[in-house]
Amino acid sequence: MNPVEQLVLEYLCRAPFVFANPQYSIKNQMGQEWSCPDFVTLNFREKIVSVVEVSVAASETTLLKRLLECETHWLQPLKVQLAKDSMVTSGWSYQLEIFARRAVCEKLRQEFRSEVKAEFRNLEDLGFYWQWDWPF
After folding, report:
1. pTM of the predicted model, to two decimals?
2. pLDDT tens for residues 4-37?
3. CATH topology of domain 3-131
4. What are the boundaries of each domain within the chain?
């Protein structure tokens, strides 16, 4: 795990009701590893599963392509896997949480068009933990 991912992990786990698993292995229908997002989080208070991606890239192109394929690449297989493993029930919602440079987040907010809920967070805002939004 690189230092930026470590900072994001600390941010994700700032609340005691959030569980984060780094490099969570999403399996395909054959049981083979299909994808490993940077993190998958379970928010037990809000009943939200988040697929989290962290990018320090200066361009949004590659990340946007992955986000536009999120339903088939991450969310659908993850829903099946978590239900099969009895981790969550059908009442849980799913979303994306993207941590990227401010300029990249701004472009992604404009260009990402999907019914999937996505939150874009600026990496530059994570440097000072006393300014974080503490959810409790």
Report:
1. 0.89
2. 999 999 999 988 999 999 999 988 887 788 889 9
3. Trna Endonuclease; Chain: A, domain 1 (3.40.1350)
4. 3-131
